[in-house]
Structure formats: C-alpha cells, structure tokens
Design goal:
It contains 13 helices and 18 strands. It is an alpha+beta fold and 460 residues long. The chain folds into three domains: 1-33; 71-132 and 269-460, Rossmann fold (3-Layer(aba) Sandwich), CATH 3.40.50.1110; 136-267, Jelly Rolls (Sandwich).
Length: 460
C-alpha cells in the first residue's frame, strides 16, 4: 500500500513540473516562481557560528555587504585636474595646516533631501580627516521626509516656500532652496546628537521692515537678531557657542522675518559636508529658480572647496527636456558656481539608475537615463569639471531591478529612492572615488618634491 494517496503524489509531481517548465521554455520565463539552485541552501540546516544573539546573526545574514573595503573602486573622471583645490583642502585637514577645514556643498534631489548617500559619505570623510561640524540644515521640515542624520527638527507657525514650488519668484531662497516666513508665535527647534559644535550661524533675509527673532541655546538666549535693513540682501548672524549645547531654538519672533537655515561647525580641522537637497528638484532649480546674485552671496559665505551638482533622476523621464534643455541649464549652473566661487572644485555627479517595469515583466532602466548621463559627462569634461558616473558605479542598466529583488530590498517600490542600505553602497562608492583621487594627488606631491630635489642635485 502506498504511503501517500495517488492524488497527492500526482498533485505534487504536477506542481513540480509546472515550476520547472519556465527553466526550459523561454516563452514561460515570466512565470518562474522558483530558482532550483536555492533548494540546497534551504535544506542546509547547519548552525552557523556567530557572535551575539541569534537575532543579530540573522540580521547579519540578511544585510548586504556595504563595507567600504568590499565595494569596488570606480574612479572619478577629472582630465582637467579640477579637483586639485578640494584635494589641497583635504591635505590641510589631514596635516592640520592653516585653517584645516574642508567644506563640501552637495546639491541634489530627494535622496539628498533625506541626507541619504550624503550622510554616509560625510561620516566616512569625517572619520578619515576629522569632524569639523555638521554643516547647513534648514530650520524646519518642508517635507515630512526631510532629514539630516544626527539632527532632529521641530517647527511651528512658519509659512514654508521651497524654491521648486513657490509662488514667490524673487529667487531669494538661501543656500538650501527653502524660505521660512515667520511671525509672532513661530518657533523652530534644532536638536543635535553631537553637542560639541563651537559655532552656529543663522541665515536670513535683511529687508526693509524686517522683524526680529531670538536665538537660544538650551533655552538660554544667545542673541537677538534684527532683520530690518534699508536694502534687501542676505543676512548672516554667526556666534561662538560653548560645547555642550544640544538644542538650538529660534523664537520670540517680532514682526515678519524670512529665515533659511543654520550652519553648525567646529574650529578644529576636518570636513564639513552640507547636504542641500530639495524634494522633486531638477537642474532648473539652480539654473532658473535660484536668483543668481542671491545664490552667489550664499555660496561665497559658505566658502566651499567642493560643490557637487547631482541631478538627473527627475529629468530622466522627460526625454524632450533631456534633449532640448538639460545640457544648456547644466552649463549655466556650472557657469554660475564658477563665477561665484572661482577657487572651488566642481563635481558633476550623475543620478543613480531609475527603474521601470518593462512589457516583458522585468525591471529595466528608463530609456533617457543613459543619454542624460553621457550628456553630463560631456558637459563636465568640456567645462573643466570632474565627473562621477554613479549610474555605472552602482552597476549600470537594470541595477534598480536587481536592488528591488535583493534581500532585503535596497530600493523602494518606486524604483527611485534607495533604502538606507542602498544609499550606503552609493555613499561608499563616492567616498572611495574621492579618496582615490586624493591619494593620487598626494603621490603627485611626492613626485614633485623629489623632482625638485633631483634638479637641485644636478645643478650642484
């Protein structure tokens, strides 16, 4: 007598056959539900050695390898040696020469808005060269997902106008692209995990009839700031503070004020990396929506050694914009940055892959993205800027499809926004590219030094 009823055996055999068919008949490949190569792994119940709790071991098994040393180096392209100013600043940070502070401004779209990628690159650079402070952060949340790692924001009573969706067309949106209009009762709280900052600067708009506000540190007043001026121009109020303050508050607003954000820093050598993302941003934000003179004043005040221009994700689904407008506006943005801060290095950073569901059922790359990335590379080269091909560095066409199918997923269901682990991978790639360029810069310094020594010996 059979151990199993005939119908059960037949059902199991039929199911196995149906699961096998897609492996041999291409027509049915979209109906594949099982990869037979995984069966031995499923049946492998051998205990694995681990440190810590079983939960930690399981998390380690599921977590993709995002270690910096495990990611492959993908080099920057810098034929004109434009990154030299940035590398020189890094060298001064590392050797503690002069001011020793390296300042980076990273402009981008929604991932940058959430400090994804930028927070990982920031942490790695600060670990390597020293932490000179958090950098720029808006005084409140224009979007619920606006976030900066190590900073918590809470705001109330502000009229918020992002440059990308503002009815105000005066181009005066500060360094970060968002205006906060306040009146009596408006408050903003900036809580920092790291309480060792030694200075804070509030940026606002000086204007006729402007009001005032009070800046507090852990509820103790630091200063009252008057924003009234005969002319309309960017205003900056910087103050030395004692380390130990974990919360900065803006309150006691009188009249009407227009604020932008704060910069947090230290006087010790190291890196300051400001993440300047605007939700839904595209290249026109910097080319048209930012007023040229106002933005130039913001850039000069920030004094960057490197400006990263990181757009293309949102533009990539509009082929007409890519074909007719993107190149011209990218050139204009580069021209504006170079005019405002001519000593700064400029890095054009391509977007990540952007996925879409294909008619075949697979997840591919939006058609215009590859052309846009090539266009960015050409513009960067022709305008003596450095270029980082994020798209190719992370894996090229179809990467978001592979990321979405990984365990755990490295990108959300929109196939655009990376999960933290995916962002960490890209942040690591950018860091390694920057570090590789810096290492080659130091090798050039050594060669130059010994070349001079050799010439001196020959003259003797």
């Amino acid at each position: 007598m059979s151990i199993y009823p005939n119908k059960v055996v037949l059902t199991i055999a039929t199911l196995a056959a149906l699961m096998t068919v897609p492996d041999y008949i291409p027509y049915f490949k979209d109906y594949k539900v099982l990869d037979w190569s995984f069966v031995p792994k499923v049946l492998d119940f051998a205990a694995r050695a681990h440190d810590g709790s079983p939960l930690e071991a399981e998390q380690l098994r599921l977590r993709p390898n995002t270690d910096v040393n495990a990611t492959q180096l993908f080099k920057l392209q810098d034929p004109s040696n434009n990154m030299k100013a940035f590398y020189k600043a890094l060298f001064n940070s590392e050797t503690k020469q002069g001011e020793g502070i390296t300042r980076i401004l990273h402009y981008g779209d929604s991932p940058t808005t959430a400090d994804l990628i930028t927070s990982d690159t920031r942490a790695l650079l600060q670990k390597q060269f020293g932490d000179a402070g958090h950098g720029f952060v808006l005084i409140g949340k224009p979007w619920e997902w606006y976030n900066h790692k190590g900073v918590e924001l809470e705001d109330s009573g502000w009229e918020i106008e992002p440059a990308s969706k503002s009815n105000i067309k005066d181009g005066q949106f500060g360094l970060g692209g968002v205006s906060f209009f306040g009146q009596p009762g408006s408050t903003a709280s900036i809580r920092v995990k790291d309480d060792t900052h030694s200075w804070i600067e509030v940026s606002y708009l000086d204007q006729p009839g402007g009001g005032s506000f009070v800046l507090y540190g852990d509820k103790s007043p630091i200063a009252k700031v008057i924003t009234s001026n005969a002319t309309t121009k960017p205003g900056f109020a910087a103050y030395a503070v004692n380390p130990g303050i974990s919360e900065y508050t803006i309150g006691q607003v009188e009249g009407r004020v227009r604020l932008y954000g704060v910069r947090l820093g230290r006087s010790n050598p190291g890196v300051v990396y400001s993440s300047l993302g605007v939700n839904g941003a595209y290249i026109s934000l910097l080319a048209k929506m930012f007023g040229e003179e106002h933005w130039a004043a913001q850039l000069r005040r920030a004094g960057p050694h490197l400006v990263v221009i990181n757009y293309g994700t949102n533009e990539s689904v509009y082929p007409s914009f890519v074909n007719k407008t993107f190149e011209r506006e990218l050139k204009l943005v580069i021209e504006r940055v170079r005019k405002a801060v001519p000593e700064s290095s400029i890095l054009v950073m391509s977007p990540m892959d952007r996925g879409q569901h294909m008619s075949t059922g697979e997840i591919g790359t939006v058609p215009a993205l590859a052309k846009l990335v090539t266009m960015e590379q050409t513009v960067a080269t022709e305008n003596n800027c450095a270029f980082f091909n994020t798209f190719e560095a992370m894996g090229g066409p179809g990467t978001m499809g592979r990321w979405y199918q990984s365990e755990p997923r490295l990108v959300g269901a929109d196939l655009i926004h990376p999960k933290p682990a995916g962002a960490k991978l890209v942040g690591n790639l950018l860091y390694k590219a920057l570090l590789d360029g810096y290492t080659r810069y130091k090798m050039d310094l050594v060669r130059e030094k010994y070349s001079k020594v050799g010439s001196s010996e020959e003259k003797k």
